[in-house]
Design a protein that fits this description.
- It contains eleven helices and eight strands.
- The protein is of the alpha/beta class.
- It has a domain of 200 residues: P-loop containing nucleotide triphosphate hydrolases (Rossmann fold), CATH 3.40.50.
- Strands 3-4-2-5-1-6-7-8 form an eight-stranded mixed β-sheet, sandwiched between helices.
- Helix 1 packs across helix 11, helix 3 crosses helix 6 and helix 6 crosses helix 7.
- The relative contact order is 0.18.
- The structure holds adenosine-5'-diphosphate and magnesium ion (MG).
- The site of magnesium ion has 5 residues, from helix 1.
């Protein structure tokens, strides 16, 4: 079977996720390469390990970079810390005013607070970067390579987290607003309110695209091994809780060899796991990829993988 449906014009966002080392980066790049033959495609890596540069054998980094050797593929490796620094820099005035009007912190406390790292901020910033790209609309397809499972899930749940913060901030503001209203009789929304409203809209936009199966698709990558299968099961169940229902799954590193004894044993050893994958994930279209004799590095190797991903 091949990956299907990715060429639908409405489908913008394609996210690859799964356990470490199962082939997410290789599959994300190969898919982006295939799509870039017909669509202007942006490959986005949110993995702090940034193996996209290594796999493409080209330096990418935190700016949209044309992938050499392709006509229509660009790539970017999101650095969450930098994305956060840009965000704080852009909204410094509102953030400071929020803390200043709603807390008893003095200026120095506020400076320190803004420099603190907040749990989950990485994923929130990564997803905000992705959604900003989609809304700028410079590309037809956005293919996302994530870090291992936990990260993909945190990425998916990042709008919820952002929403929690907005609620806390809004509660803090409520007291401020109450005070102003009781002193002056009325309250005019200010820049902080506009800022919080803007963030709230970002949350809504992220949630609406993630839950819209015509606009986004999550593709889990698995290998025929016990731990990978268990992790895929957990991933699918957690995705389900966020109303994200994958349609297809990539089963990578499948051996089919009647060659040497070692290969025969590895091939036979995978059979029960392949059966388990078929049974456990029976509602998903399965795309099997062979285990290649060489690692997948450089455009030629990626082209080979692409051919397996997209040919029946
Ligand atoms: N089908 C395959 N055959 C051979 N090597 C593979 C295959 N798929 C992935 N690899 C190799 O396995 C390693 C991990 O793959 P990668 O795509 O980086 O996984 P992930 O992003 O899930 O950690 C890489 O060295 C890659 O070249
Ligand atoms: Mg990777």
């Amino acid at each position: 079977m091949a990956l299907t449906g990715l060429e639908n014009n409405d489908l913008k966002l394609i996210i690859f996720g799964g356990k470490g080392g199962v082939g997410k980066t290789s599959c994300a790049i190969a898919t982006a390469l295939a799509l870039s033959e017909k669509f202007k495609t942006l490959l986005i890596s949110t993995d702090p390990a940034h193996s996209v540069s290594d796999c493409l054998e080209q330096q990418i980094g935190f700016k949209v970079t044309k992938v050499a050797g392709t006509a229509n593929l660009s790539a970017i490796e999101v650095v969450a810390d930098e994305a956060l620094a840009v965000f704080i820099n852009e909204h410094e005035a509102e953030l400071k005013k929020l803390l200043d009007t709603s807390t008893n912190l003095d200026n120095q406390d506020i400076e320190e607070m803004l420099s603190l790292s907040i749990p989950g901020i990485d994923e929130v910033m990564s997803f905000k970067t992705i959604i900003d790209f989609i809304e700028e609309g410079q590309f037809d397809k956005y293919v996302v390579d994530t870090a291992p499972t936990g990260h993909a899930l945190r990425l998916i749940s990042s709008p919820k987290l952002l929403d929690e913060w907005i609620k806390v901030a809004a509660r803090m503001r409520w007291k401020y607003r109450y005070m102003i209203t009781s002193f002056s009789g009325s309250y005019q929304p200010d820049t902080v309110d506009t800022f919080l409203l803007g963030l709230k809209k970002t949350v809504k936009r992220i949630e609406s695209i993630l839950r819209d199966q015509t606009r986004s698709e999550f593709i889990p990558v698995c290998i025929p091994e016990a731990m990978a299968i268990m992790e895929t099961g957990r991933l699918l169940s957690d995705l389900g809780k966020s109303e994200i229902i994958p349609r297809q799954i990539i089963v990578n590193n499948v051996m089919a060899s009647d060659g040497c004894d070692f290969c025969k044993r590895r091939t036979a050893g995978q059979l029960p796991y392949l059966k388990e994958i078929s049974e456990s994930f029976s509602n998903l279209n399965k795309v099997e990829l062979p285990m290649f004799s060489e690692e997948i590095k450089g455009l030629d190797a990626l082209d080979k993988l692409k051919a397996f991903l997209f040919s029946e």
